[in-house]
Specification:
heterodimer, A: about 375 residues, alpha/beta, two-stranded parallel ribbon, 13 strands, about 15% strand, globular, B: about 325 residues, eight-stranded mixed sheet, five-stranded parallel sheet, 10 helices
Chain lengths: ~375, ~325
């Protein structure tokens, strides 16, 4: 490795992965420049980082660029626009000689991994906004930077102390008695510990530069199921997970169907309008319109006949529940695909112990 | 009404809500940034005015500026005969709070503090459970609220203003939910702060404090942990002589009541709450029944004493 180590620019440095990644890189001796909005830059103070705003980002080249930024915010229909803004920023930062590491997600294969999982570009298509934006960004970056050194790091579900989704979010559902999956169904949690993930990126940067696109899947605890994880978290907060069951359903009355259909049509029309107005990542307008037809309508059609149905067809489950259940019922394992020679420093047992220690300090139990 | 402060809270909450409130006309808006004021004024179809003009035009002034400016703005408006709603946190010291409450009373004006979490259905339900006395007197309060800071504040006061720290910003919300639920917003008490840990001098982004409230009936041990940097449990736990009540600080979800015979989860009646609905209900309470509103400023004096005691604890 060169001495001194090359400067690293990090986009999305204030996030759950970004903060420990900056700390890990600093500890390894890299000068780190975090690119952050002024309103959240204070989160990075005291970590030995240089902090610059996106507007200042293209004044000098960076030998290494790591992108963790992705669209967030409450208005999912605006995420495609935000995705393009992130792409514009990345394009201003990355030069032909830059080593570029882009953080993607196992989500590029669908929240429930319904697309084939392989170390290659994911299918483009209409999907949840999160999935669609992540997949689209991979395609854009591969088109623009595929000839230089480009790494797509796809983490599994990133958990660990402070995890907003896979600890805090799950505990909140447990405490609220919300559905955690389908009874008797094996579902893979596909977890990676945040400490292992950032260690892997540090390991990756230690390797000699190599041109071309490389895929990395990091989910060292992929073989563990949600049953195990949920049992652990539920025990920590003294709760019992609530499971859904498949069940027989009597045919619905026409009045019930009309009520459900009307409500769903309203929602669908609004969503379609917003998505068509604010921009789509992929797909035709017609497919975009069809993709926003919500489950209640499809479920209502099934209910015309009665009979068996999936719990997720329950119109009482809102879009947030549906997204949770897609992940919590994932029946496919997201196998790791990492560089030879890397060994996760945090074992599964240690990871669980760290999480429960943090849960106590953070007031969960 | 007139709106002072055209930053994040104005855009996110007031812009969609104010035009929908019955009997409300937005007379004008005001901000140090002409650009921000013009942008919001366009949405309301009202003029962007200077503060003095706005006070002369409005009958109710909503103050949604950084907290350091609340006292001076509220004083000016009250003295001009205008009722005032201050966005949380009320002000930045107990003395300022007492001064404004006394001034409003002497002038016969309405003075309110916007704390919409009081109107979450589960907070109302938890208040009823504790108020019923079934769990006995309150003996302890535990508050945890934290997550990565995500507000796109225009002024940046959260990282520059000594009163822009997480305690006044987020902690005032959490503390208010708790005090209201335990009816401690109507009970006089004195405050002793035992210990405060913070990540840095104010404006601090992590605060962990232990305090004691002495009422005429009992002593209540309190702990508040708030953070802008790290995720926390985001819940309130109110311990009583014979059990405890726990609920999440965000809208929606149930309350958990643990007593001698076990734990029971109760879902509040009605549809799931949203922040916007609770925000609307708080304004309906101010506009339709100001005398009975739980947002009258006098009910926030105790909260300000706690916040001030923690803020200034070495």
């Amino acid at each position: 490795m060169p001495d001194p180590l090359p400067e690293v620019a990090v986009l999305g440095a204030t996030g759950f992965v970004g903060l420990p990644l900056c700390d890990r890189l600093r500890a390894a001796g890299y000068p780190v420049t975090a690119i952050a909005r002024r309103s959240s830059a204070f989160l990075l103070e005291g970590r030995g980082l240089q902090i610059i705003s996106p507007e200042e980002a293209d004044r000098r080249p960076f030998p290494i660029v790591i992108n963790l930024a992705y669209p967030t915010g409450p208005h999912a229909h605006l995420h495609p626009q935000e995705n393009r803004r992130i792409l514009d920023l990345v394009c201003r930062l990355v030069r032909p000689e830059t080593r570029f590491v882009h953080f993607s997600s196992l989500g590029v294969f669908g929240l429930d991994l319904r697309h084939p999982v392989k170390p290659g570009l994911p299918p483009r298509g209409r999907d949840r906004e999160y999935v669609e934006c992540k997949a689209q960004m991979e395609h854009w970056l591969a088109d623009r930077f595929g000839d230089q050194e480009l790494h797509f790091v796809r983490p599994g579900n990133v958990w660990g102390p402070g995890s907003p989704n896979w600890v805090a979010g799950i505990v909140e559902r447990l405490k609220n008695g919300q559905a955690m999956g389908v009874q008797g169904q094996t579902a893979y949690a596909n977890l990676t510990d945040v400490a292992n993930l950032v260690d892997y990126v540090a390991f990756l940067l230690q390797q000699p530069p190599a041109r071309g696109l490389q895929f990395h899947h990091v989910a060292e605890f992929s073989a563990h199921t949600w049953d195990e994880v949920l049992a652990f978290l539920a025990a920590a907060v003294k709760r019992q997970p609530v499971w859904l069951r498949e069940f027989e359903l009597a045919p619905a009355s026409s009045a019930q169907l009309l009520a459900v259909g009307t409500q769903a049509c309203r929602r669908s029309a609004l969503q379609t309008f917003r998505q068509l107005r604010s921009g789509r990542e992929t797909g035709s307008w017609v497919r975009s319109a069809f993709a926003t037809v919500p489950k209640p309508i499809l479920s209502a059609v099934k209910r015309l006949k009665g009979g068996a149905r999936l719990p997720s067809d329950d119109p009482a489950l809102g879009p947030v529940d549906e997204q949770w259940l897609e992940v919590l019922t994932c029946s496919r394992e997201f196998h790791s695909h990492t560089l030879p020679g890397w060994h996760p420093p945090v074992s599964h047992e240690e990871s669980l112990a760290r999480v429960v220690t943090w849960m106590r300090a953070a007031g969960f139990c | 009404v007139g709106l002072v402060g055209c930053g994040a809270v104005a855009k996110l909450f007031y812009a969609p809500l104010l035009p929908l409130l019955p009997g409300v006309t937005v007379a004008g808006v005001c901000d140090l940034s002409t650009e921000s004021a013009q942008a919001l004024a366009g949405g309301f179809h009202c003029p962007a005015l200077a503060l003095e003009e706005l006070i002369q035009t409005a009958t109710l002034l909503i103050v949604a500026t950084p907290p350091s400016s609340h006292h001076a703005l509220a004083r000016k408006a009250l003295e001009a005969g205008v009722d005032v709603v201050l966005e949380k946190p009320f002000v930045v010291s107990a003395a300022q709070a007492e001064d404004l409450v006394a001034l409003a009373a002497s002038l016969g004006r309405g003075l309110f503090v916007a704390h919409f979490r009081r109107f979450f259905r589960k907070v109302q339900l938890a208040r009823q459970v504790i108020g019923s006395g079934v769990l006995g007197a309150v003996t302890g309060l535990e508050l945890f609220e934290g997550g990565r800071f995500g507000w796109d504040t225009a002024s940046g006061y959260v990282s520059r203003d000594p009163y822009g720290g997480v305690l006044l910003d987020t902690g005032s919300h959490t503390l208010d939910q708790t005090l209201y639920t335990a009816a401690l917003d109507e009970t006089p008490f004195t405050v002793r702060v035992e210990k405060v840990e913070r990540d840095k001098a104010e404006p601090a982004h992590n605060v962990n404090a232990r305090f004691t409230l002495d009422t005429s009936r009992q002593q209540i041990m309190g702990r508040i942990v708030v953070s802008r940097r790290q995720m926390l449990a985001n819940l309130v736990r109110i311990r009583c002589e014979h059990g405890e009540v726990e609920f999440g600080v965000r809208p929606g979800g149930s309350i958990s009541v643990t007593g001698n015979t076990g734990r029971f989860d109760f879902q509040p009646p009605g549809e799931t709450d949203t922040q916007v609905e609770a925000f609307a209900r708080q304004y309906l309470s101010i506009l339709q029944s100001p005398q009975e509103s739980p947002l009258q400023a006098a009910r926030f004096l105790g909260q300000m004493r706690i916040l001030e005691a923690i803020l200034h604890h070495a």
